[in-house]
Amino acid sequence: METNKKLLAMLVEKTFKKHGVKNVQSNLTKEQKVKLRSIVKEMEQEVKAFVEKAEKKEVHQGNPQKSAPSEVNPPSFSETTEGKPYVYRKKNRKNR
């Protein structure tokens, strides 16, 4: 989780720099700060619930582990042109 916070901080900093936003002290009242903190906490809870729900759904679908997609070898030229006229195969050989 700490890594995500660091990554987010870096992306925000880069975006601010890109758009010329300078680090300026905000003038929020204590009430506004409390409201902002509560909004952020609610959002964190919603995200956590969403992630947990997605993980449960993934387990129900038979994928208990997250794995990298398996490599799929595309069909060879001869496999894709099998059963097609010779002219078609000859024409598309130039595109290789």
Termini separation (Å)? 46 Å
Largest sheet: none
* Helix segment tally: 4
Poorly predicted sequence stretches spanning 5 or more consecutive residues = none
What is the ordering of alpha helices and beta strands?
HHHH
The count of strands amounts to 0
Range of helix content: 55-70%
Shape: flat
Kindly report the average pLDDT value. 76
SS strand fraction:
under 5%
Structural class: mainly alpha
Task: Indicate the radius of gyration in whole angstroms.
Answer: 26 Å
Biased composition (Basic residues): 87-96
Protein name: Spore coat protein
Organism: Alteribacter keqinensis
Region (Disordered): 55-96
Please give a structural write-up.
- The structure is a single chain.
- The protein has helices at 2-18, 30-60, 77-81, 86-93.
- It has 96 residues and is an all-alpha fold.
- It has a domain at 2-60.
- The protein is built from four helices and no strands.
- This is Spore coat protein.
- Residues 62-80 have a biased composition (Polar residues).
Features:
mainly alpha; Spore coat protein
Topology record:
Elements: H1 2-18, H2 30-60, H3 77-81, H4 86-93
Structure in a nutshell:
With 96 residues, the chain is mainly alpha-helical.
